[in-house]
Specification:
The model has no long low-confidence stretch (mean pLDDT about 90). The protein has one domain: Glutamine Phosphoribosylpyrophosphate, subunit 1, domain 1. The chain is of the alpha+beta class. Strand 12 and strand 13 form a beta hairpin. The longest helix has 20 residues. The protein is built from 8 helices and 13 strands.
Length: about 280
């Protein structure tokens, strides 16, 4: 089992405080994850931290204690499709230039699907595949769709455009899987640090929440009664964010994304949910 979380915030300096706010609402980890990965943006660079091997105790707040970023991608668990040994490069999130990607797996036919996607990939992109997981080829399929539209290097992109390419990625992978009789989990997450999108297609629950203000913050010693005279307190009161999470049960304050849907989040934190078929057409 794997766990996936994505967060886009209006204030990079309060990302850690928003993580503290959210983690109490989420389900505790049922078992020690075999691998943990973080992806975030710092000085316009996409950075990764990966911890292959058993990680215990797992405290997300501690993992991000020194991270200041507009976006956070977090994945805990085996890489999608892995049942034992795996490469460090397979641990998510995955990165390609300014893009981060996660897969809430597994696929039904990971080996065959990886090979099929690899064979249809342009050579220059196929050479970028460093790991052994099919998830990486799903990611590169998204990159290919963005490149075909001349969008892969664009910084200011509409979330709907990114969501449409991610939806098309899910449909392409679905078609490859269906040829072999069974379709696995196609829960994909992607961000360029400005906008983010996620698909729910046979991948279990996906939910989102809009975070508006922080009344109490143990990290910064702020309570509901702390006066608003401090700039730090005022920043806590007005910070906003959106979190996406793969949860077995929808937590309090979260809204479930319907099956076969795409959820997009803009830099202004506007959330939109649309049927996957409409965006992928």
């Amino acid at each position: 089992m794997s766990y996936t979380l994505a967060l886009l915030t209006s204030d990079p300096n309060l990302l850690r405080c928003q993580v503290d706010l959210v983690k109490g609402r989420l389900s505790p980890f049922a078992e020690t994850p075999r691998a943990v990965g973080l992806g975030y943006v710092e000085a316009d660079a996409i950075l990764l931290r990966k911890k292959p091997g058993s990680v215990t105790p797992l405290d997300l707040g501690r993992l991000v204690s020194d991270v200041s970023s507009e976006v956070l991608f977090f994945h805990a668990g085996l890489p999608a499709g892995s049942s034992g040994a795996f490469l460090d490069e397979d641990v998510m999130p995955l990165r390609f230039r300014r893009w981060l990607f996660m897969h809430q797996g597994p696929l039904a036919n990971p080996v065959a699907t990886r090979q099929s996607l690899f064979e249809t990939m342009p050579a220059f992109l196929a050479r970028q595949a460093k790991g052994s997981a099919a998830s990486e080829l799903c990611f590169l399929t998204f990159v290919q769709l963005m490149r075909d539209g001349g969008l892969s290097e664009e910084f200011e992109l509409s979330p709907q455009l990114v969501g449409a390419r991610l939806a098309e990625t899910a449909r392409r992978v679905e078609a490859v899987e269906r040829e072999r009789g069974k379709v696995g989990s196609l829960g994909f997450f992607v961000t360029n640090g400005r906008v983010m999108a996620a698909t729910r297609l046979g991948s279990g629950s996906l939910c989102y929440a809009l975070l508006e203000g922080i009344a109490r913050c143990e990290r910064c010693r702020i309570t509901e009664s702390t006066p608003d005279t401090s700039p730090l307190v005022r920043a806590h009161r007005r910070v906003r964010g959106v979190v996406l999470a793969s949860e077995p049960q929808v937590p309090p304050g979260f809204i479930e994304v319907p099956e076969a849907s795409v959820v997009t989040v803009g830099h202004n934190l506007e959330i939109q949910v649309a049927p996957l078929a409409r965006l992928a057409s």
